[in-house]
Specification:
With 303 residues, the chain is of the alpha+beta class. 45% of the residues lie in helices and 12% in strands. The protein binds a DNA duplex (13 and 12 nucleotides) through helix 6, helix 11 and helix 12.
Length: 303
DNA sequence: ACCCAGGATGGAA
DNA sequence: TTCCATCATGGG
């Protein structure tokens, strides 16, 4: 349970301290689940909803700062998932040597709870892109189509992620201008379906995992992987397990040595081996495989 | 110059 | 079912 100590000593600024144990901001904000966080010095700057936020790690706490005074901080503690009991989640992981190794290597890695539309749009744009490029595309999309948000005086301008309506009004050429290439028509088509009201992302939370997944996959540019990303990073579905090239590779190496399991076989294994917190397990495996292990491989001359 | 990246899609085998 | 080419773009 996080304790909040808000203060607004400085006019036009506001700050709060969240007491939280075992929360690694560096890993969490830089693990390919959200794309708008930038590390400036020791702090992370980003946009949550329509608010600019600066986050800093302290001893047993996270210090948050906004540009304008705010009355409540639940929007941020919810986004950061401060109430999640990470120790209990990790304790329920299977006694799997490789997974436990990933947990030790990525201590304090968490899952965020993002806005469904921003998450969906970001991942539609993510296909066959490196995380660095996804960040660039989302940045341009926000700068060109997003509404300006309040920032501290002297700070360069920052824009919110564009609304569904704004993206739906855009042209394909306009979206391609953000360097998203062949993903532009997918994003545009999905935005227009959502803007028409034929699909409400907020209702997904009331559905079962399978039903919510089916609905997401019906959207243009959304397949099994991206649907699972949205269900895990924006929805209350901790069993969601995105399988991208990194996860596919590491699962094959570690659990099917010498084999070539189909996605169907993989899904069966994932369901029974990693439950009930398979989504968390996935994030540890992903980050461990992508950053830690890849870096080690480079340094030791392999590859 | 080559290969790869938090993939999805439509069509062929 | 599974396999395959195609789609843009930038990084290493």
């Amino acid at each position: 349970m996080s304790v909040i100590h808000p203060s607004c000593a400085t006019p036009g600024a506001c700050q709060a301290v969240f007491t939280v144990a075992n929360y690694n901001l560096d890993l969490t904000l830089n693990s390919g689940q959200a794309f708008r966080w930038r590390k400036i010095g020791q702090a992370w700057e980003g946009v949550v909803g329509s608010r600019w936020v600066r986050l800093r790690s302290a001893a047993g706490s996270i210090v948050a700062e906004t540009a304008e005074p705010v009355n409540r901080w639940d929007w941020l503690s919810h986004y950061l998932q401060l109430e999640a009991d990470l120790a209990a989640i990790l304790a329920a992981f299977p006694p799997d040597p490789f997974l436990q190794q990933a947990v030790r290597a990525c201590a304090g890695l968490r899952l965020l709870r993002q806005d469904p539309w921003e998450c969906l749009a970001s991942f539609i744009v993510s296909s066959t892109k490196q995380i660095r490029q996804i960040e660039q595309i989302v940045e341009q999309l926000s700068r060109r189509l997003g509404a300006p948000v309040a920032v501290p005086s002297g700070h360069p301008p920052v824009h919110a992620f564009p609304t569904v309506q704004r993206v739906a009004q855009a042209t394909e050429t306009e979206l391609r201008g953000c360097k998203m290439g062949f993903r532009a028509p997918h994003l545009l088509a999905t935005a227009r379906i959502l803007a028409q009201g034929g699909f409400c992302l907020d209702t997904l939370a009331h559905l079962s995992y399978e039903e919510a997944r089916e609905r997401l996959i019906a959207l243009p540019g959304v397949g099994d992987k991206i649907a699972n990303c949205v269900l895990l990073f924006a929805g209350p579905f901790p069993e969601a397990f995105p399988v991208d090239v990194w996860i596919h590779r590491v699962l094959q190496e570690q659990y099917f040595p010498g084999g070539h399991p189909s996605l169907r076989v993989l899904r069966q294994f994932i369901r029974e081996h990693f439950r009930p917190w398979s989504g968390y397990a996935q994030q540890y495996l992903f980050h461990y495989a992508r950053v830690i292990k890849a870096r080690g491989a480079r340094q030791s001359g392999r590859h």
